[in-house]
Structure formats: C-alpha cells, structure tokens
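Support reply, case 0932

Customer input (verbatim):
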Amino acid sequence: MQPVENYIPQRPPFVLIDTVESVSAQAARTRYTIPADCPLVTDGVLPLAGLLENAAQTCAVRAGQAAGNKIGYIGAVKQMQALRLPRVGETLTTDAVLVQEVLNISLVDCTTRIGDELIATSTLKLALTEE
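Our regenerated output:
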C-alpha cells in the first residue's frame, strides 16, 4: 500500500490513519493507533470528534480510490453512535462501505472496532469536488 498521505488531503499532525489495510471503489479499511500527542486527545481519550474524523478520513481513502483527484466534504452525519470512547494506545480498525452514490454525493456506512469490540458506527453523506 501507498503512504496514507497519498490517499487523503490531511497532513500531520491531523492525520488519524496510520495504515490503509485495503481499499477499493466500494470500501476501505484503515488502522490507527492513538498517540498521546494526537491534537484531539483530551485526558487520554479520543473524543467523538476524533472518531468522526477517523471515519471521514477512511471515507476519503475510499473516495480517492474511486474518484481520483477530488476533495470530500461531510454533508451530513447520520446515526452516529459511540458505544465507548477509545484511549491513547488503542488501535482502531475502521471500515467505510459505500451504500449509495449519485453524481458527486456518496452515502457511506462506517464502523470502528478495537479488536473484535465494536465501538462506533455512523453513516456519512459526503460531497466530492475537484481539487
């Protein structure tokens, strides 16, 4: 796989993906081990905003593979649920699976796990635009 920065527009320290495990036009899987110096970490915990950003960056990996040189914007967050917040040192595995795509609008289901434990789910509506 290519370096993460080849898939997403974010740059350190705001990259919330370490590894792209798999990617296709339909889905992406990423991993992220939460470092203590992550700018979103508070009191050793990655908050809901961090889980959302990790999911959005995983969606960007999928969209970049499918659409090429485009930038994505979150148009809506639907049904986001955090079953628990992750701590520094834990490794997130996030899956983004395309549900529907019309023109430059995508609906993507995301799940985040730590090991076998499901910790977050969301559905994101994303809009793609030329860079």
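We compared this against your earlier run and they match. Two observations from our side: The chain is about 15% helix and 45% strand. Residues 59 and 96 are 6 Å apart (CA to CA). Please reopen the case if you see a mismatch on your end.
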